[in-house]
Write a structure and sequence with these properties.
Helices cover 38% and strands 18% of the residues. The longest helix has 20 residues. The chain has 2 domains: 143 residues, Rossmann fold; 126 residues, Rossmann fold (3-Layer(aba) Sandwich), CATH 3.40.50.10090. Helix 2 runs parallel beside helix 11 and helix 4 runs parallel beside helix 5. Strands 1-11-10-9-2-3 form a 6-stranded parallel beta sheet, with helices on both faces. Strands 4-8-7-5-6 form a 5-stranded mixed beta sheet. By secondary structure, the protein is α/β, with parallel strands linked by helices.
């Protein structure tokens, strides 16, 4: 079953409204990086669920800061600065500000709502962002990105990020440079305790917010544990992750309307509301 909560008329659109409903003791495996999981875990527990932390990505320093810093030193020569994630903002803005800040003429863009919130948290703006969606495709569809020939665009991202933005903008005539300001790593996790919780039916849903986290979870569980994951409802935040989960054989996938914590909680509440009995 694939359920798309992003297209539903959910009653649960904000944390303030969610307090009327309950997760009924649902155990939720939260796979977000440790430094990004606190608020979602609080919301889950406030709604009557059990948050089980299992960070499947760690955000570390890039292997070499020098290339990104050299790009930041030349921002005055650029036309647009594009951030691909909240981590890109949190890691990239401090060295930019240390080098004199963002030049007044330089336009900013955020790939989605979470990235935009990170910019706002740092007091930076205004910035372009898609009205709906938080993908490269949604950003590239904006009118601003249709005529970029000859423009110099910097993409702030993690090492080895998706290349669709760069290749499309380059095909449209832009001169694209990457500033890679963090590295994704897989934490060392012993799967035994996780498998025991599944065996005791303590995990009733899994939240996955990146393609890499999904891949790491399958690798972590191995052949012995993947059947548990395939039979557990999965809450995801993009069509790409949903398709990857489908390709892996997951049976129940819920697409949150966006990557925010409130939207993830709303999808979990949709799950419990549509379950014949409380998931434990």
């Amino acid at each position: 079953m694939v359920f798309d909560s992003s297209r539903s008329t959910s009653l649960w659109s904000s944390p303030e409204e969610n307090h009327h409903f309950s997760l009924n003791g649902l155990g939720v495996l939260v796979t977000r990086p440790e430094h990004q999981a606190d608020n979602l875990c609080r919301l889950i527990e406030r709604a009557g669920g059990l948050a089980i932390r299992c960070p499947l990505l760690a955000i570390g320093e890039p292997r070499d800061w020098a290339p990104a810093l050299a790009v930041f030193d030349r921002l005055a020569d650029c036309d647009l600065l594009l951030f691909t994630s909240a981590n890109a903002v949190d890691r990239g803005l401090p060295p930019i500000l240390e080098r004199g800040g963002i030049p007044p003429h330089l336009e900013l863009a955020a790939i989605g709502a979470a990235t935009a919130r990170a910019l706002a948290r740092h007091g930076v703006g205004p910035y372009l962002q898609p009205a709906e969606g938080f993908t490269s495709e949604a950003l590239l569809a904006l009118p601003r990105f249709q005529r970029v020939a000859g423009q110099r665009i910097v993409i702030v991202r993690g090492e080895g990020g998706r290349d669709l933005l760069a290749t499309t903008l380059a095909a449209r005539g832009a001169r694209v440079t990457f500033a890679e300001v963090y590295r994704r790593e897989r934490p060392a996790i012993d799967p035994a305790a996780l498998l025991e919780r599944w065996q005791r039916n303590e995990i009733g849903a899994v939240v996955v917010t990146s393609h890499e986290s999904l891949r790491n979870l399958f690798d972590l569980l191995g052949v012995a544990g993947q059947d548990y994951l395939l039979d557990t409802p999965l809450v995801v935040v993009s069509d790409r992750i949903r398709q990857a989960a489908t390709d892996h054989g997951c049976h129940s996938i819920l697409l949150a309307r966006e990557a925010s914590d409130a939207a993830l909680l709303a999808a979990l509440l949709e799950l419990t509301a549509n379950s014949p009995s409380p998931a434990r």
